[in-house]
């Protein structure tokens, strides 16, 4: 089944404790993105990747890192999480930037 | 700066009627425009893509128009059903690499 998977689905952590949210797709897509969604602010792009080893900042990259060592995986790293990073996070992939994006199920992160 | 405006207030439509959602954009010259549906707590699901040289696109009960002069896209759901209740997101896409979503319009189809 074609899908985007994210793990964990739910995470409660404390300020400053490094964490990684994994994202994997099985559709051989080149374009991958991370978004955060907050009430009243909508869906905002954090980072995106056009292909392996090619990543770039979206609209709200501060406090996040990503890597794209393999085509299928695009982990999101929070080196020192803060409470303002409490949010619902989505990973997405598409064949190319203008193609339909397939979204993962979301990761609900709470930083205390 | 680039700005996308979708009806910020929820739209209530009687079942069976046509729902029309608006997406206006400024400081954009999108080559493509996408529409997504999102249910609470779930990721968006792609519905339709329309290109700048297309005026209209249809898929089953869905119709999208794209007016590059008015800088506006309209999204129509005909013969609406309660199952169409969701938030609908507009995504005008320039040729550069970032993707910016509109904040969406919540649609309620009343039985």
Q: How would you sum up this structure, described in words?
A:
- The complex is a heterodimer of chains A (112) and B (111).
- Chain A has 112 residues and is mostly beta strands.
- Helix content of chain A is 0%, strand content 51%.
- Chain A contains no helices and 11 strands.
- Chain A has strands at 4-7, 10-13, 19-25, 31-38, 42-51, 54-57, 65-66, 76-78, 87-94, 102-103, 107-111.
- In chain A, the strands form 2 sheets. In chain A, strands 2, 4, 5, 6, 9, 10 and 11 form a 7-stranded mixed beta sheet that branches. Chain A has a 4-stranded antiparallel beta sheet with strand order 1-3-8-7, with no helix packed on it.
- In chain A, strand 5 (42-51) and strand 6 (54-57) form a beta hairpin.
- Chain A is globular and about 35 Å long.
- The model of chain A has no long low-confidence stretch (mean pLDDT 96).
- The mean pLDDT of chain B is 94.
- In chain B, the strands form 2 sheets. Chain B has a 5-stranded antiparallel beta sheet with strand order 1-3-8-7-6, with no helix packed on it.
- Chain B is mainly beta.
- Chain B has strands at 3-6, 11-14, 19-26, 32-38, 45-51, 56-59, 62-67, 72-77, 86-93, 105-110.
Topology overview:
The complex is a heterodimer of chains A (112) and B (111).
Chain A (H helix, E strand, L loop, with lengths): L3 E4 L2 E4 L5 E7 L5 E8 L3 E10 L2 E4 L7 E2 L9 E3 L8 E8 L7 E2 L3 E5 L1
Parallel strand pairs in A: 2-11
Antiparallel strand pairs in A: 1-3, 3-8, 4-5, 4-9, 5-6, 7-8, 9-10, 9-11
Chain B lengths: L2 E4 L4 E4 L4 E8 L5 E7 L6 E7 L4 E4 L2 E6 L4 E6 L8 E8 L11 E6 L1
Parallel strand pairs in B: 2-10
Antiparallel strand pairs in B: 1-3, 3-8, 4-5, 4-9, 6-7, 7-8, 9-10
